[in-house]
Amino acid sequence: MTLAPNATSPISRIVTTSVEKNQPGRSAWKAVATPFRAVSRPLSITLSVLVWVAVIGGWFALTYSGAVKEMFLPRPESVLSTTIRMALDGSLWEHVLASVQVVLIGFVISSIVAVPLGLTMGTYRVVQAALDPLVNFIRYLPVTSFVPLFILWIGIGIEQRVAVIIFGIFFQQLVMIADSARSVQRDLVNAAYTLGTKRGDTVFHIVFPATLPNVLDVLRVTMGWAWTYLVVAELVAARSGLGYISLKAMRGFQVDVIFMAIALIGILGLCTDQLFRGIRRLVAPWAN
Amino acid sequence: MDTLALATKPKSSDIGIDNVVLRYGKGDNAVLALDGISFHVVPNEFCVIVGPSGCGKSSLLYLVAGLEERTGGMISVGGKPVTEPGPDRGMVFQAYTLFPWLTVAQNVEYGPKRKGMPAADRRAIVEHFLREVGLAKFANHYPSQLSGGMKQRVAIARALANDPQVLLMDEPFGALDSQTRHSMQKLLLRIWDHSKKTVLFVTHDIDEAILLADRVLVMSGRPGQIKKEIRVGLPRPRSMDLVMEPNFIAMKREILELLKNDEDDEH
Asked: How far apart are alpha carbons B76 and B80 in whole angstroms?
């Protein structure tokens, strides 16, 4: 017994050194363990698929092993079959459409005002001085605390949900767009002046194109927030939409419907995100 | 083609700088950046200001461009007092200032377009000046696809395409490696020989100053003042080999001495 470790250790040492000498394996590990080093496309696809498989596999394991009651965590296939059933009877599309409509209206109204106002605010110090304190005050107010007020003021129609979304994203958009306008390189504006640009044209001719990639990123990020505020609004007062069916499903213990709604919002968010990336590539090709 | 002929024909004015004062801040915190600067640049002259960093030479250029406001004195270009920036004073900056959202050709076209020049004339001008700086092949590239030297060549083309009365250059080659800088100096001299614009050029590189200039103004710092004026008088066209010539070295020594005294004064 006392001899055994002594006897095996030299052998194991030989084994390890021979593994270390195995150059391909070592350099592959070194490559992926190097900060900021790019990895090959097959590897990155494999990894992302593996993580999804692990998450869904874990879901299967939890439900089929009986570790979690189906009342709290539905089986994956029952979520899928509920989705198919609701897609076929048309009720799914009605709710998806209702939600998408509210998000789009709120997002578009907010952005149409926030982009020009934000650019003006970042360019002209007077506008900034006037608006900054107010905007930064409102920006920190929790949107949810305004929901009862909005219901009191505008009722429980679509306008209320649109208002919640606008209130949730407008001030954030404003601040972020003003910031990117403020960071426009000063000599870029100076160069424009020496080439005959009028002061009044600076926002449109210089600040707007210079910040366009940033502005599109701000819109992409705040679109995601719009989805969050949509659900908040729909949970409180709505008769259709993905947030609404989640609330209804909770009352009827239909956990599969809640899961479906969450997954759909995730997929819709992913789609709009890709859409914005596509738009950015298209209208700001220089920034890639 | 008439417009092109106009744009490439010499059109240049004088620059008058008379007792210019620039002060930053107020009260006890006020900093006197420029103290009573006076000189005159004649039409077609290549005038270089050389001085230590922080002596206010760039600020002086920004004042001529109208990008900063002077505290006192008078600046005029072509007899007209400078009150704000304008296309009659083209400028090339030390930082890269090409518009990243425009292609090389669109950048060069920017000034003429602001003036409302017809598209066909603009195209001819863009073609001409991109050929001048040797970048005709890169007309449709974006600035982010160019090297630092190429960006500054486009910046020179962009400034000249707008047909300014004077060309202001603020250490335009300061961020380039020495080999690129030499080829840029050669290129600039060739273009200047064609366009004969009045040039006011700022640098801290003494070799560059002597190599390019008809006249070098040596500036001292804090507050900025013109210490001495040196007429270079070396024959043109000039080449890099001049840096070995005895009178080049004599001028370089003189300027070094002037700048060294300035440093000693500070300590």
From this structure: 5
Across A86-106, average pLDDT: 93
Average pLDDT over residues B240-264: 88
Contact residues on chain B for A191, CB-CB shorter than 8 A: 91, 93, 97, 99, 155
B158-177: buried (b, 16+ CB within 10 Å) or exposed (e) per residue?
A: bbbbbbbbbbbbbbbbbebe
Residues of chain B above pLDDT 90, percent: 80
Interchain CB distance below 8 Å, A287 and B100: yes
CB count, 10 Å around CB of A132? Answer: 15
Q: How far is A191 from chain B (nearest CA, A)?
A: 7
Q: Please say whether the beta carbons of B108 and B154 come within 8 A.
A: yes
Say whether A194 and B67 touch across the interface (CB within 8 A): yes
Tens digits of residue pLDDT in A168-216: 999 999 999 999 999 999 999 999 999 999 999 999 999 999 999 999 9
CA angle B250, B254, B260 (to 5 degrees): 140
Q: What domains can you pick out in chain B, each with its CATH number?
A: 2-266 (3.40.50.300)
Q: Which helix H or strand E contains B202, and what residues bound it? A: strand B198-203
Name which residue leads in pLDDT, B223 or B263.
B223
A196 to B93: CB separation less than 8 angstroms, yes or no: no
State whether residue B215 is helix, strand or coil: strand
Q: Give the DSSP letter of residue B82.
A: P
pTM for this model (two decimals):
0.84
Burial grade of A221 (CB within 10 A; 0-12, 13-18, 19 or more): middle
Q: Which domains does chain A have, with CATH numbers?
A: 17-64 (no CATH), 76-287 (1.10.3720.10)
- Which residues, in sequence order, are bridge partners of residue B32? B23
Please, which pLDDT band fits residue A61 given cuts at 50, 70 and 90? very high
Residue B231: strand pairing partners: B215
Q: Which of A187, A195, A214 to mutate to test the interface with B (most CBs of B within 10 A)?
A: A195
Q: Identify which of B175, B101, B195 has the alpha carbon closest to the alpha carbon of residue A185.
A: B101
Are A75 and A63 contacting, i.e. CB atoms less than 8 angstroms apart? yes
Within 8 A by CB and 6+ apart from A214, the residues are A177, A180
Task: Tell me how far apart the alpha carbons of residues A246 and A253 are, in angstroms, rounded to a whole number.
Answer: 10
Residues of B whose CB is below 8 A from A208 = none
Residue in the block written with tokens 């080659």: B173
Burial class (CB in 10 A: 0-12, 13-18, 19+), B229: exposed
Please, which pLDDT band fits residue B223 given cuts at 50, 70 and 90? confident
Q: What's the CA gap between A180 and A219, in Å, rounded? A: 13
Question: pLDDT at position B262, please?
Answer: 67
- Per DSSP bridges, beta strands B89-92 and B166-170 are parallel
Instruction: Quote the ipTM score.
Output: 0.92
Flag whether residue B181 sits within 8 Å of chain A, measured between CB atoms: no
Count of Cβ atoms closer than 10 Å to residue A216 Cβ: 19
pLDDT band at A25 (very low <50, low <70, confident <90, very high): low
3-state DSSP percent of chain B in helix, strand and coil, to 5: 45, 25, 35
